[in-house]
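#structure-requests
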Amino acid sequence: MKKVFFSAAALMCGTMMFAQSNNSSVNSVGNNNTSAVSQVGLTNDSDVDQVGDDNDSSVDQDGTSNLSEVRQASGYGPLRNRNNSVVEQDGTANNSFVWQDGDDNVSSIDQDGTNNDSYVDQWGDFNDNEVIQNGDNNDSDVYQGYNGDNHVSTVNQQGDDNGSYVWQDGDSNISDVDQGGDRNDSSVDQDGNNNISDVLQGFAGDDNVSVVDQDGDNNNSNVDQWGNFNDSYVKQDGNNNDSDVFQGYPGDYNTSDVDQIGDDNTSYVSQDGGNNTSDVDQDGNLNDSNVNQDGFFNSSAVFQTGNSNLSTTDQIGNANGSSQIQTGNDNESYVSQIGNNNGSFVAQVGDLNDSDVDQVGNLNNSSVAQNGDNNSSDVDQLGNSNGSSVAQAGNDNTSIVAQTGDANTSTVAQSGDLHLSTVTQNGMSNISNVTQAGFSHTSDVFQDGNANNSIVTQTGTTHTSDVDQIGNGNTSTVTQSN
C-alpha cells in the first residue's frame, strides 16, 4: 500500500498521487461489528456501512477502478444483526453492491476480470447468497426475501457477457445458476415457498437463454442447455409442479416452452440435435408430459387441460411433427416417430380416452380425434407415405389400424357407442374406409397385396362385417343398416 506524505515533493505531484489512490470508508454503529478492507492497485473504492450487532464484512480488491459497497443495515430504523459479507474483486472496473436488511444473512461475491457487475439485495433473515464471476462484462442481480426468509442463491458465471437475474420471495426457495461460455442469459423468478430452480447452460456453447418463473409452493425446475443458441422457458403456477429440460447434447437452436398451471404436474423435455422445438402447456392437476427428440427440425406440441392426463412423445430422426391435445381427465396419448418427415395429430376430449401412434419410416401421417369417454385408438405405420385418419365421437369405441408397406390409406369414422374397427393393410396403395354410426358395430378389414379398396358403412345397431382382400386390385363395398 503506498503512503502519501504531504512533503514539499509530494505536493508538487499531488495531482498524480491523488489519481492513483484507493479510497475506503467504514461506518459501524452497534456492538461487536468487524470490518476488514484490503485494497491493492489503483483507484479502488470501498464503502462499508454496518448498523447493528455482530455483523462482519470483508472486502479485498486487487486491480484498478474496482468499486465495492456493502450495506448491512436497515433502510427504516431497526438494527440488523449477525450479517456476514465477503467481497473479493480482482481485475479492472468490477462493481459489487451488497445490501443486507435483516438478520443472519450471508453474502459472498468473487469477481475476477473486467467490467463485471454484481448486485445483491437480501431482506428478511437467514438468506444465503454466493456469486462467482470470472471473465469480462458479466452481470448478476440477486434479490431475496422481501417477504420471507431462508432463501439460497448461487450464481457461477465463467466466460464473457453472461447475465443472471434471480428474484426469490417467500420462504426457503433455492436457486442455482451455472453459466459457462459467452453471452448466456438466465432469469429466475420464484414467488412462494420451498421452490427449487437449477440452471446449467453454455459450458459447451454460447448464446443460450433460460427463463424460469415459479409461483406457488414446492415447485421444481431443472434446465440443462449445452450447445449454442438454445432457448428454454419454464413457467409453473401452482404447487408441487416439476419441470426438467435437457437441450443440445449436442446441438444448437433448440427451443423448449413449458407452461404448467395447477398442482402436481410433471413435464420432461429432452432434445438432442439441432433446431428442435417443444411446446408443453398443462392446465389442471396431476398431468404428465414426456417429450424426447433426437435429430434435427423435430417439432412437438402438447396441450393438456384437466386432471391426470398423460402424454408421451418420442421422435428419432428429422423433421417429424407431433401435436397432442387432451381436454378432460385421465386421458393417455403416446406418439412414437422413427424416421423422417412423419406427422401425427391427436386430439382427445372427454375422460379415459387412449391413443397410441407408432410410425416407423418416412412421410407417414396419422390423425386421431376422440370426443367422448373410454375411447381407444391404436395406429401402427411401418413403411413410407402411409396415411391414417381416426375420428371417434361417443363412448367406448375402439379403433385399431396397422399399416405395413407404402402409400396405404385408412379412414375410420365412429359415432355412437361401443364400436370396434380393425384395419390391417400389408402392401402398397391399399385403401380402406370404415364408417360406423349407431350402437355396437364390429368391422374387420384385412388387405394383403396392392391397390385394394374396401368401403364399410354401418348404421343402426349391432352389425358385423368381415372383409379379407388378398392379392391386387380387389374392391369391396359393404353397407349395413337397420
